[in-house]
Amino acid sequence: MPISRSDLPSYLDLMLPTLRAVVALGGSAQGKEITTQVLDEIDRIDWARSYAKLGGALESPRRGLYILTPLGKEILNLEATAALERLRVLDRAVKAARAQNRQTVPESEDPVEDEAGEDTAWRDVLLNRLHRLSPEGFEEFVMYLLRSFGLELTRVGGTGDQGIDGIGTAPISPVLTSRVAVQVKRHDPTSSISREVVALFQRDAAAAGAERAVLVTLGRFSEPAVASR
Predict the structure, then answer these.
(1) Cα dist. 5→10, 40, 42 in Å?
(2) Cα–Cα 20 to 30 A to 116, which of 75, 101, 148, 161?
(3) Could you read off the pLDDT of 164-197 as tens digits, one per residue?
(4) CATH class of 8-101
(5) How many helices (H) and strands (E) does the chain have?
(6) What does the pLDDT look like over 115-139, one tens digit per residue?
């Protein structure tokens, strides 16, 4: 029996699974990762991502990359029926706003660079803000940051783990990729990562089949650790 359009789930039906997919992928994800995570079935997933973004449940800092917002997390913490109703309210608000202004909403805006000077105080501010994140929050931020550079990652670790936190591929040319393993350590900015820690992670990465090991920390690397790269 052929499937008609009415038999398919609407984009609204797919919004909640879309938010859950971003959570499962570590709080941020590339568009195609979301599609794979949710049952790569129909193009209404794109509508779900779009309306979730327009409603404020997802953000898209650049084309194809999505981040779960506080509103998205709030919706996910609701019971399924309540979450769906909240998404229906969000959907109606988005449609009402679009009907009112009838303007195309851009998918993303390029950030405006500050060229007033070369003040580097922002670095200290950024480090302090990152250090105030929870270990899980910092790990999610790092996954998002690496994805923004084109890496496709699956989150495999958890807070407090000593092994691999993410594994996937990194582009090394328009046609080639390299398998990478990622470890995230939210150390104090004054602390130092030892050579032993780096060597252990390199062994763990190699055992997982990764060709490259990416260790991200708010601390510093000791001279022996840098030399062992």
Answers:
(1) 9, 16, 11
(2) 148
(3) 999 999 998 888 899 999 999 887 777 788 889 8
(4) mainly alpha
(5) 9, 9
(6) 444 455 677 777 778 888 888 888 8
